[in-house]
Design a protein that fits this description.
transmembrane, two-stranded parallel sheet, 370 residues, single chain, membrane, transmembrane helix, mainly alpha
Amino acid sequence: MRSIGFLVQKFLKPLLIGELAPGEPSQDRDKNSQLVEDFRTLRKTAEDMNLFRASPLFFSLYLAHIIAMEALAWLMVSYFGTGWITTLILACILTTSQAQAGWLQHDFGHLSVFKKSSWNHIVHKFVIGHLKGASANWWNHRHFQHHAKPNIFQKDPDVNMLHIFVLGESQPIEYGKKKLKYLPYNHQHEYFFLIFPPLLIPVYFQIQIISTMIKRRFWADLAWAISYYMRYFITYIPFYGILGSLSLLTFVRFLESHWFVWVTQMNHIPMEIDCEKHKDWLSSQLAATCNIEQSFFNDWFTGHLNFQIEHHLFPTMPRHNFWKIKPLVKSLCAKYGVQYEEKPLGKAFVDIVGSLKKSGDLWLDAYLHK
């Protein structure tokens, strides 16, 4: 324990810029201190309600249904052969398995399943590594930044679009005034369909994951990822050969990427995206996130990310408890006039495209007239 404290001091000491004066408030001046205090009370209430206690049955069944899909895919090709119809159904099953494994690794990555962090980390590496072929450390590095500063330029990696898209209201106007035209952003709501959903996982994420594991020497993550690819190719090369198995895997990644992009972007892209405004925790999270209406299908399809607001406010809370804290969150937001946005799943998808079009139009206007 003493060595951990020494390590923390070692890295924090260079960041010390001074001490607050006795009369100086311990928070930014424009934050509502009563709201901050009420949110702390809400968190204490959630703890008293045991909402941070996970259900072993829920997560056991969730893992079991992923493994069952993997087994079903193998049984299908073993029994029915490699015809086009069988292969298409097989690809859909594997896509579903991969998407659901993605939501499950998210749970362990947030330390929301086991009481001990070490157990969450171990199972996280198994799920994201052996079941998906990705890196736990890579995911943690990206995702924790996102949660700390959602939709904040230069702080949230999820809104770093590499000049391919412009987001929100301030960025497109800034690009337009500076006459920056890496792509015709007034058409970004159209080329979005050709770039973002089909290419994020099979191209961008794959390159980033592999390069990160090698460059940063995440050898344990690399070993877990290799175990996934070994298991996959040992399973399917006897049926499809090397090239066929590789093509099948690429197609599965392609399908999964669509699922992943639409679900993960529906909660954030249509919301406020801007530079740092130093808001309190609740206000900053609510400005950047929205919810999707609850249903059994929406819960399963999105991995409970339809409760994105509650997830962002309480990142370590097991997802099966989000619905219990939701009324209390809505009540707190109503008390302080903080917008709590919830919409149907279909509208959430449409809003992604609408938001991109709005940002593109802002860019074009600034580019031509400012």
